[in-house]
Amino acid sequence: MASNGSYNNDRPSSGGEPPEYSADPASGSFFHSDYKKHEDLKQMLDSNKDSLKLEAMKRIIGMVAKGRDASDLFPAVVKNVVSKNIEVKKLVYVYLVRYAEEQQDLALLSISTFQRALKDPNQLIRASALRVLSSIRVPMIVPIVMLAIKDSASDMSPYVRKTAAHAIPKLYSLDQEQKEELVHVIEKLLSDKTTLVVGSAVMAFEEVCPERIDLIHKNYRKLCNLLVDVDEWGQVIIINMLTRYARTQFTDPNADDVGEESQNKPFYDDEDDDDADEGDSEEQKKEEKTKKTYTLDHDHRLLLRNTKPLLQSRNASVVMGVAQLYHHLAPRSEVMVVAKALIRLLRSHREVQSVVLNCIASISTLRKGMFEPFLKSFFVRTSDPTHIKLLKLEILTNLATETSISVILREFQTYISSHDKEFVAAAIQAIGRCASNIKEVTDSCLNGLVSLLSNRDEAVVAESVVVIKKLLQTQPNEHKDIIIHMAKLVDFITVPQARASILWLLGEYSDRVPKIAPDVLRKMAKTFISEEDIVKLQILNLAVKLYLTNPKQTRLLCQYVFSLARYDQNYDIRDRARFLRQFIFPSAGVENSKLTKHAKKIFLATKPAPVLESKFKDREQFQLGSLSHYINARANGYHDLPAFPDAPSDSSVRDVELIVPVQETRVKKQHTVKKRSFYSESEQSSPVDEDSDEESSEEGTSEDEDSSSEEDDSSREDSESQSSDSDVRESGEEKETKANAKQKKTELKKAGKEDNNEVSEESDSGETMDDSSEEEKSDSSESSSADKKKPAAKEGPTKTVSDDSTKSVTKPKSNLDLLLELDDVPPTITPVLTPSLGGFLTPLSTHGMPITSVSIQLASPSFIPMKTTELLNKISGRGLHILSRFTRSPHLFSPAMVSIELTFTNLSSEELMDIRISQKNLPSGMSMHDFAMISVLPINATVPGTIGVDFNDSTQPVSFNITVGGHHNQVTIRAPVGELIRAVTMPEPLFITEQSKLRGMNEHNAVLNLVSSCIDQKTICQRVFEAANVASIPSTDSKSLRFAGQTLSSKSLVLVTIKILENDQANISVNCEKMVIGSMLLNEIKSYLRN
Amino acid sequence: MPPVIATPHHYLISIHRCCMFFVAVCMTEVPPLFVIEFLHRVVDTFEDYFSECTESIIKEHYVVVYELLDEMLDNGFPLATESNILKELIKPPNILRTIANTVTGKSNVSATLPSGQLSNVPWRRTGVKYTNNEAYFDVVEEVDAIIDKAGSTVFAEIQGYIDCCIKLSGMPDLTLSFMNPRLFDDVSFHPCVRFKRWESERFLSFIPPDGNFRLMSYHIGSQNIVAIPIYVRHNISFREAGGGRLDITVGPKQTIGRTVESVIIEIPMPKAVLNCSLISNQGKYSFDPVSKVLIWDVGRIDTAKLPSLRGTINLQSGAPAVESNPAINVQFIISQLAVSGLKVNRLDMYGEKYKPFKGVKYITKAGRFQIRM
């Protein structure tokens, strides 16, 4: 409130002329009042009262804020640098930093105060003194600042050391001569081990001496390990620096894939034979992987591993930093991990979105597959600003492939009706690019574009014309009708660009429309004068070309056009006319010159088609995520990312013979100890998700194996690198003893610490400790050691480095998670309900289900098993005997339920009363519908009942209690995989297209020798029907039998094909999006066919 | 307006928030996101300090702004951006303190060193004390969706946040576990969360900052089917004599028995629309003839009588025919429901003796929810 008042007081004077001391004598009164006004500020500053000083300072800062000159107050202000009041002091600092450069001499007055403050016992005061001192840009004090920086760089307080690091670039910009000395300080600060300091130290390094890569070697591993705990801004700087460093030190991880392909082939040949039925791509992957483990340097791996967790940072620039690091450094197969995080950033602020989309656009030109799963995240909303829309369009176009093109084109179609004209034009261009890149859709795109020609919006038509022109060029085959159509458009379209395109097309393909072209030229000749320049040029062009092919009809027209052009106002057109004239109407005397002879060749040569490609292709030269990359121009101070060296540098330069290994073991120990004491309870109580455990155990698909082994690899390497590191660093025994000693110490320390945490209210030791580190720096020996150890010890819980122990313990679980995640994310859009909603809400048929399902119809089962299994025997059921049978009929309660018929028989000697289901123990996602309660079951009577169980497409058993007269019997039902399926029929072509969508991991194959008892197709059919509830699909191929079904819960298709081969073998393939179901069903069918 | 403008010698990086542009000027190469993220952090801090961030508020508090910027930046490099630290250095202004300061002559600037900055838990200040120890977690989920003309979902995903208000004494060490942590496609955390433990055990272990903060945000991608809690039946045409017709009905869908509240329908109309004369059976509608936006504040959806809005649209005579239909932006809130089905399992506290009061609240909202007409 006070500040508000002062602000208002200040205002009237701002209405006057800005200069405070006007030389104009007419403004004497102004001069006077201003002078007086400042006088009053000066008086306030000179007063004894802090509140007055503060008030004055606030008003002065207000003047500074509004950009008014307050430099004449400098002497009055600078006196207050000694003020005791912290706020006054701070504001004086602000003022000082602003005006010191202009008032150099006076600024010197304040220096001694800062020099004194630099020796203050309070680290905050030391730090702020250094901060202001280094911000005063007065060349005179360079030596003083240099000295202060040197002193502070070895200060006990990490905060002061951090400030020293910040001061370095300031001094460097003031005086470049000091570089050499500053580099020494930087070297010292780089070796600092506190996370507070290293970020700033690297920042100073980047500002002052980014070329001194050698300074990093020794600190490389430490920086990698500390990275997670550094503050966000430091992380960005360090990641960027390490990217550059790694580019100079390690070899290209992807170089081998391209270069040594042929060399490596024989190596893997035998392997190829072994797993011949695996897809090519998988082998390729495998190959890459084996190679990768050979080539990747340990330190390179360390960097990749330690930056990966930062993808989860809340700070977009950190995520981007890691993404560019992976993009520039990681082996091709690993870059994928960054995609998810980048997609997440798209939800952030608009500016972030713009930068990230820019980078994605650039990545997507090189790595198409990376963002393909996230295609839909780039769909455009009408509320997006135009530049975001264009970027999304660019990315969608880059990502288009044969499989996704139909979805993308459908989107593009909706975009064309947008209000945003610029966006519509871009959408049409994007269609053109898709058409030229993907041959399959060229024709349909062309048709679509032609239909746009009759759009009411002229801009749309014009853009379509331009795009069609480009497409026709790439498609040299006959498109006569399109050209005719476009020729007609000349009468309506006024957009010059489009008119020019049409004329060019007519000229180029005039031989296909020999009648129309001259007529168009006639029309154009009439309107020549009123045309735009670009159209005029094309008219000339058309005239020449027509004259060359058809001089009889067009000679006069041509002459007319050229004489009009000769007197055109635009010199370009006059020039062009003069130039073209020589070809067709050579001036007298040179009739038979070479030009005229070859004119036809010159004008009607076949021209190379334009390549429609992304405009982000050339951005690759810039480092991803950099300013230069964004503006697509070299920014000041941008350094190119160096190319990978041919040979890696010697990794021993990064070895450190310090106590680093000791520190690592110490941290590790502490971690485990801490864990045991703190978290043991939680570990037990934390729920482990086991609902789909069996899925993972069934999973034999190669991709999963890949990922899991990759994990293994990295962890193995991890341990390798660790051991090798320590080998190099120290001889074993020495290390051990040292480590032991240290360990004991830390354990002691830790015990003390825990006490603090737990009983801080009883004993004040915790607080006093903190206080001592803050203020009582004077008894240095004690507090300094405490200070140094504390950060290291405290790192424990947050430390992510080298906690092998946790990793090895939990590794299997994380692998499992990986497997499950894969399973949870099916590649197509069939409905997988989020678990909690599963039971209640079946998704509406409008979304999720593919449209094709219309022609997929439910069929009645071809075989109804009569086999019953005993659910409860009469002994344990005390006379109640229950048989169960799968009826394969849809359950009335919900179509997702498997209906099971239970037959209750009373074999006891007395009536059984009140038979019902009491307690159900269902795994999550499953649900169950009870049978109607049986109130009385007479002796030897048999009563049927039906239950419905939604197994949620898993073969996990459901167990429940059947109560008979108050007595509980636990029973368990497990459905064979064949019963989780419902028969459906569909036409054969649909079967084949659906099957082709479920290739790769979703396909399971086996070759089986048919036993003599089931050799003919009929028996095989019968057996398959027994194995699973599928329907036979009439097949045109006599050798193949096709069956179709869909899973009950998720309604994903299950397609079975049995191909009978020679010598009594049969090839069975099962395609199902649920990989587990597919593989289990295959086994089931196999076992049925064997008997 | 693109976020980066290149001039011959300077690069202007700007963000647009609270109807203001915040511009940073750079001379040399710098990752643009670094600057953008910092600017956003500055605005966040302003909002945190002044509870809102407007032009007049910034002008009013220019001294605090100066002091804040002075602490947040040093020679163009971010220094202290953690709100807990800043609040220790510079006390946020409020009327009571201003009066107290004028009476006692104390200042807003603290004389002590922010203890957090030196510890390994830089986001938490030490010596926190509360008489009532409370920890509240708000699970907020936003449904982003594009629904096409026919009502089928083109794209849907969930963006979730867990915002906390933690008022616990001392240095509590919390773990938060979920019933179904595998739901998350992608997550990002406040720096306080121990990432390794999340990776291995799938629960959040952290020493919280004091006060309000965003613990985590997560993303449930389009690979999962997202329940769409609302549907809009719409019919719009501009081609009839005497203007166009509009007919909109809103209804709930897949809400697990919860009511959909605070529904707002927003339609940016084409330029040619002059005015709308509509009748709604619930809520109020307004049409801004300048920005051409039709806003219908529906409120709560009662399943017995579905809210509808119908009537005519007056078109400018002589204007070119409207080719395309606008899109509908929908806002809604469903309380006590996390649409993804996420459930917090339990919260445990270690390191302190007292029993805190814990609370979890679930809210589902519309994010970028768009229906194409």
TrEMBL record, chain A:
Looking at the keywords, is Ligase present?
no
Q: Which Pfam families match?
A: Adaptin_N, AP3B1_C, AP3B1_C_2
* Function of the protein: Subunit of non-clathrin- and clathrin-associated adaptor protein complex 3 (AP-3) that plays a role in protein sorting in the late-Golgi/trans-Golgi network (TGN) and/or endosomes. The AP complexes mediate both the recruitment of clathrin to membranes and the recognition of sorting signals within the cytosolic tails of transmembrane cargo molecules. AP-3 appears to be involved in the sorting of a subset of transmembrane proteins targeted to lysosomes and lysosome-related organelles.
- Key word Transport present: yes
According to its UniProt record, which protein family does this protein belong to?
A: Belongs to the adaptor complexes large subunit family.
Q: Give the protein's recorded name.
A: AP-3 complex subunit beta
Membrane topology listed for this record: Peripheral membrane protein
An example GO BP is:
intracellular protein transport
Tell me where on the tree of life, at the top rank, the source sits.
Eukaryota
Q: Which organism is it from?
A: Zootermopsis nevadensis (Dampwood termite)
Query: Locations of Basic and acidic residues compositional bias?
Result: 282-292, 726-756, 785-806
Q: Name its cellular compartments.
A: Cytoplasmic vesicle, Clathrin-coated vesicle membrane; Golgi apparatus
Residue ranges, compositional bias (Polar residues): 1-12
GO cellular component terms given for this protein:
AP-3 adaptor complex; clathrin-coated vesicle membrane; Golgi apparatus
Residue intervals of the AP-3 complex subunit beta C-terminal domain: 812-956
Specify the signal sequence span. Answer: none
Query: According to the UniProt record, where is the region Disordered?
Result: 1-30, 252-292, 670-811
Please provide the record's keywords in A-Z order: Cytoplasmic vesicle, Golgi apparatus, Membrane, Phosphoprotein, Protein transport, Transport
TrEMBL record, chain B:
| Protein name as annotated | AP-3 complex subunit mu-1
- Where does it primarily localize? membrane
Q: Which PROSITE patterns match?
A: CLAT_ADAPTOR_M_1, CLAT_ADAPTOR_M_2, MHD
Q: Which GO terms describe its cellular component?
A: clathrin adaptor complex; endomembrane system
| Source organism (scientific name) | Zootermopsis nevadensis
Q: Which InterPro entries match?
A: Adaptor_comp_med_subunit, AP2_Mu_C_sf, Clathrin_mu, Clathrin_mu_CS, Longin-like_dom_sf, MHD
Q: Which family is this protein grouped under?
A: Belongs to the adaptor complexes medium subunit family.
Q: Domain MHD, which positions?
A: 132-372
The domain of life is: Eukaryota
Q: Where in the cell is it found?
A: Endomembrane system
Question: Tell me, what is an example of a GO biological process annotation in this record?
Answer: intracellular protein transport
Ordered alphabetically, the record's keywords are: Membrane, Protein transport, Transport
